[in-house]
Amino acid sequence: MNLEKIIPKDGPSIEEVEKYIEKYSNEIIVIKCGGSVLLDRNLFNQFVEDIAVINKLDLSVIVVHGGGKNIKLKLDKLNIETKFIDGLRVTDEKTIKVVEEALLELNFEILSNINNHQANAISVTPQKNNIINVKQQSKELGFVGSPNKINKETLLNIIKERKIPIMVPMGIGDDGKFYNINADTAAGAVAKELNARRLLLMTDVEGVLDQNNNLLSEINSILANKMLEEGSISGGMIPKINTCLDSVNNGVTGVVIVDGRKPHSILFELFSDKGAGTLIRK
Fold this sequence. Notes:
The protein is α/β, with parallel strands linked by helices. It has helices spanning 3-6, 14-21, 36-39, 41-56, 68-77, 93-116, 126-129, 152-160, 183-193, 221-230, 237-248, 265-271, and strands at 28-33, 60-65, 84-85, 88-89, 121-124, 132-136, 145-150, 164-167, 170-173, 178-180, 198-203, 218-220, 254-259, 277-281. α5 packs across α6, α9 (183-193) packs parallel to α11 (237-248) and α10 (221-230) packs antiparallel against α11 (237-248). The mean pLDDT is 94.
């Protein structure tokens, strides 16, 4: 394997990559992307390149993408108002159609860009090959579900063929209807079901910060729970940390909140000593 040809010039050093490849060789990496990564062209291109690199290194990676900002643009255009309850979008019949459309467009864009990098990606959507069976979260939220069962066989078969599943965070309920799922929650459910070595949650923040706003490169679940209680983890970071804790307590070796605004953050997180965010372990 010619690493010089595979690793981007502004990525981690070849020596470091060599050191870490073995660590992930028979493991699964689940990556959730959202936020700026999907909107900023430059970050998007680097993200796509990073995913392609992992595939070319013969490692197994699954991508779950969000699309909140994309959905919002579409809803605004159609003058459909959105209400949120605890950070989750209230989703009626009209909204779920728009959500579906926005996510499928994004899915296709990620897929075709990865394949343009001579890697091999495949779309995983409830329309084509549903992976997630959901239960409705609450009547008030409408078509918002939480994962109930994960069909891991389909995912494992895709990985066996050395392809990258690109998953839409949606599932089907027992009523046969489509439900939107919080992308962090969907990625966490997949990572747990497959006992992933790593779950990477791409965000628009540096990671978890201490009281003096310094980045914590690693924390365990005891410290994370303490920070939640004290309120030093707040806002949109709360559901992320809850996903992290749920994952590390249920079979995932480590979860990383990755700063998606950093160049090649995925490669630096997986294949370098310094990482690119906060690692959370049990």
